[in-house]
TrEMBL record:
Record-linked Pfam families: Nic96
Keywords: Membrane, mRNA transport, Nuclear pore complex, Nucleus, Protein transport, Translocation, Transport
Residues that span the membrane, as ranges: none
PANTHER family listed in its UniProt record: NUCLEAR PORE COMPLEX PROTEIN NUP93, NUCLEAR PORE COMPLEX PROTEIN NUP93 NUCLEOPORIN NUP93 DEAD EYE PROTEIN
Lineage: Eukaryota, Metazoa, Spiralia, Lophotrochozoa, Mollusca
Name the record gives this protein: Nuclear pore protein
Gene Ontology BP annotations: poly(A)+ mRNA export from nucleus; protein import into nucleus
Species name: Lottia gigantea
Similarity field: Belongs to the nucleoporin interacting component (NIC) family.
Length: 809
């Protein structure tokens, strides 16, 4: 006991001496703690001590949050205060007298309300976006299937197009094309037009080109269609930079459309009269001075007009009002004016009205005469029994737009001409309701519709009704629904699109025909991209080059380059990579493909196709395309991923490994001869994987000595105990593709050593005994290396390595 007290006294003396030394010459504050205080502090620290994992987590969290300026204890207090609110439900109200508690409760309730609202909004937004993404994806797939069904009117065989077939060739390859003779003729004109655009020279009128080829179809309806389009598109264009919607809504443009439609109907009617006369020359008794007046008189002899008025309304044996009407109907206002002058004394105030109508700009009467003629029409003319007189007054004075004039306009052309003649563009100073182009469009398209006009039985007539009232988009959509007429609809759309007269939707994924909220009713918009893809679906598999010509029109659509997207889809559908995109030669040069004819950034297109191909999981095709677009680093990156999966497999003909190996060897030979842009890491990994393929080829062919020699040259595995640490450190720098192969490499190396050991162990020779010890030592080195690797090997790899090593003892 004395010795214990003496030892404790010495310890206390030394502690005081150390304390004195610490107090001397230091600026640190002095802290006095007795043993009880030290014990209590130690107890508090001990009470905070958690298991090792939790303690390490708390320390790391404190360091992280502290480095960002957060006070960990205060945060802990706040979190503990909210621990009871894990469900984020409002707190229970406190007593009314507890003001501090009430305020604190309200503040916490407000925070909880914000958290709950944000959480709810976040989940709703995520769900909404998820469904929107799914709907868009399904819509694309649905439209793709629909385009396929619409584009294949009959079952077609998937013939592969020949690489040397160009649309510009003089002779098309027979027996393989899904294009009929009409579609082929149109495609030739499209090719010629695109060539002119690409060359940048003077280009021909696309509508004239289509009209010329349409005349060879020996189909009057088609010829009339293109004659009508030639007439309708002759309009003054709006200011530079105006949107197509503004151009189409411009009163000047709409007035030009109306005048063009009237002119077409007038010229068509003049042809009809002429044909009727020359078909009945004996009855017509044509003679006199050539002109519209004599033609009308002869026509009335063949198709007599009913005379319901007194004989003084007759001129040269024919009703005056009928002659005036037919002259105006043929578009010859001068001939009608001559008739009015001859019968002026019998026509009352009408000669003055007509004179102003002919001489005024836009054939519009002055407000005074406009009021007079409408008043005269209501009081006298409307009750007249002469249908031609009523029709002439309605045309000149734009009276009574509700009257159909069935006795005069017994055909749809006559009805359209009368209604177009009554359209008003200037405001009516009398305050009466005007008959506008929009009202006529609504009447024909929405009120009557295609059933009224028997559209499916008479498609050209209904198409004409819509086009002559400048409803181009609805006309194109209607005609495109008929498979045999879809080609005409597509090429009409191309003409209007090139002239910037076609209304397109803002979203290229929209339906074929849509209505925009900002457009005047009943204006519609047509999705040109969808129309073209629906049309080309029929022949893209057999006539890919021709499909490219149509996709070229989509290159400058607002917001996106649909040409690239369509090319990508075309390549993936037809799998004609080399024919469409080109081919790499052995020397690294690129053989041009069909897209090179368009003189655009081919590398950008190929890269886009490569990205789409990779997204679809077609990695081998993606490698070729990345290589073709000179994106060598991406090509090697994908190749390394594919090679790492097949490196340990045995070689067999026509296998994935054999195909990838040949492809990789071709790339390696080409990259050694030419400069490439791949990173050093991907390049080294690529060549290392090729060497490992060589090793496994030798290993699987039982060439164990050669295989081990290759493995030594690669310096991937240690050969002695001294190399283990160095090889482990070197292994850290290998990519995942190489690391993935390591378990198979270790097992193959161990099996190689074991094979050599079995082949020599029965020989009794000192030098062989030393070599067997060398093989055993190498096996132990491999096990040591496998144990030190910072890489998790498969569960049975280490066990199998040990088993093989045991067999060598």
């Amino acid at each position: 006991m004395d010795m214990d007290l003496e030892g404790f006294g010495d310890l206390l003396q030394k502690a005081e001496q150390l304390t004195a030394e610490m107090d001397s010459g230091t600026d640190l504050p002095h802290v006095d703690r007795n043993l009880q205080q030290i014990l209590e502090a130690g107890s508090r620290l001990l009470s905070k001590t958690a298991p090792v994992s939790q303690d390490a987590t708390d320390v790391k969290a404190s360091i992280l949050l502290g480095s960002k300026g957060y006070n960990v204890p205060k945060i802990s207090e706040k979190l503990e205060g909210l621990s009871a609110m894990k469900t984020f439900e409002p707190l229970e109200p406190v007593r009314d007298t507890d003001i501090q508690g009430f305020l604190r409760n309200e503040r916490e309730n407000a925070l909880l309300a914000v958290i709950e609202q944000t959480r709810k909004h976040t989940f709703e937004e995520v769900e909404r976006r998820q469904w929107e993404s799914l709907e868009n994806e399904w819509e694309r797939e649905k439209q793709k299937i629909l385009n396929t069904l619409l584009g294949s009117g009959q079952e077609t065989l998937d013939f592969q197009p020949e690489a040397e077939s160009f649309i510009g060739d003089s002779v098309f390859t027979q027996g393989r094309s899904n294009l009929d003779h009409i579609e082929t003729a149109y495609a030739r004109q499209v090719y010629v037009y695109n060539e002119q655009v690409i060359e940048g020279g003077i280009r021909h009128s696309l509508v004239d080109m289509f009209y010329e080829v349409a005349k060879s179809f020996d189909d009057k309806n088609v010829t009339d269609l293109w004659e009508m389009m030639k007439c309708m598109i002759e309009v003054p264009f709006g200011r530079t930079g105006d949107s197509i919607s503004n151009i189409r809504s411009d009163k000047r443009i709409q007035a030009a459309f109306v005048e063009n439609a009237k002119h077409y109907l007038e010229q068509t009617y003049l042809k009809y009269i002429t044909t009727t006369i020359y078909g009945n020359l004996q009855q017509a008794q044509l003679g006199g001075v050539p002109g519209t007046y004599n033609l009308v008189k002869s026509f009335l002899k063949v198709r007599p007009a009913v005379m319901r008025e007194a004989e003084d309304f007759v001129l040269d044996g024919q009703p005056v009002w009928a002659i005036i009407y037919y002259c105006i109907r043929c578009g010859d206002l001068k001939a009608a004016e001559d008739v009015v002058k001859k019968a002026a004394h019998k026509l009352g105030d009408f000669p003055a009205f007509y004179r102003e109508y002919v001489q005024s700009d836009g054939h519009r009467l002055s407000p005074g005469n406009y009021t007079k003629i409408k008043l005269q029409y209501r009081r006298v003319v409307k009750s007249s029994t002469d249908p031609y007189k009523r029709a002439v007054y309605c045309v000149v004075g734009q009276c009574d737009s509700t009257e159909d004039h069935n006795e005069v306009s017994d055909k749809i052309d006559d009805y359209l001409w009368l209604k177009l003649s009554q359209i008003q563009f200037e405001p009516d100073e009398t305050g009466q309701d005007q008959f506008t182009l929009q009202k006529l469009q609504t009447l024909l398209y929405e009120d009557f519709g295609e059933n009224h006009f028997n559209g499916y039985q008479q498609p050209f007539m209904y198409f004409q009704v819509l086009v002559l009232t400048s409803q181009f988009e609805a006309a194109i959509e209607f005609l495109s629904r008929l498979e045999r007429l879809r080609c005409h609809a597509v090429h009409v759309a191309l003409v209007l699109f090139e002239l910037k007269l076609l209304l397109l939707p803002n979203n290229s994924q929209s339906q074929l025909l849509t209505k925009d909220a900002g457009d005047q009713a009943p204006m519609r918009r047509i999705n040109l991209a969808r129309l073209i893809m629906m049309y080309t679906r029929k022949f893209e598999a057999t006539d890919s080059r021709e499909a490219l010509q149509y996709f070229y029109f989509l290159r400058n659509l607002k917001g996106e380059n649909l040409f690239i997207s369509c090319v990508s889809e075309l390549v993936l559908e037809t799998r004609e990579f080399e024919m469409l995109l080109g081919k790499l030669e052995r020397d690294g040069s690129r053989k041009p493909g069909a897209i090179d004819k368009f003189k655009i950034d081919t590398h950008k297109i190929i890269k886009h196709v490569a990205e789409d191909t990779e997204t679809k999981g077609l990695f081998e095709d993606a490698i070729r395309l990345y290589d073709l677009s000179e994106n060598h680093d991406k090509a090697l990156s994908l190749m390394n991923k594919l090679l790492s999966q097949v490196v340990p497999q045995p070689s067999s003909p026509q296998s994935n490994r054999d195909r990838l190996k040949n492809m990789a060897i071709g790339m390696a030979e080409r990259y050694r001869k030419m400069q490439h842009t791949a990173t050093t890491s991907n390049t080294n990994t690529f060549y290392l994987l090729l060497d490992l393929i060589t090793f496994f080829d030798l290993y699987h062919s039982s060439s164990t000595d050669q295989a081990y020699d290759v493995l030594k040259q690669l310096k991937l595995l240690p050969l002695t105990a001294e190399e283990v640490e160095h090889r482990v450190n070197t292994f850290r720098h290998y990519t995942d593709e190489v690391r993935r192969c390591l378990p198979d490499i270790l097992l193959a190396a161990m099996n190689t050593l074991h094979s050599q050991y079995k082949a020599l162990r029965y020989y009794n020779c000192l030098c062989l005994f030393q070599y067997l010890n060398y093989l055993r030592s190498q096996a132990r080195v491999l096990i040591m290396f496998a144990g030190m690797l910072p890489y998790r090997l498969p569960g049975d790899t280490n066990a199998r390595l040990v088993q093989i090593e045991v067999l060598m003892n």
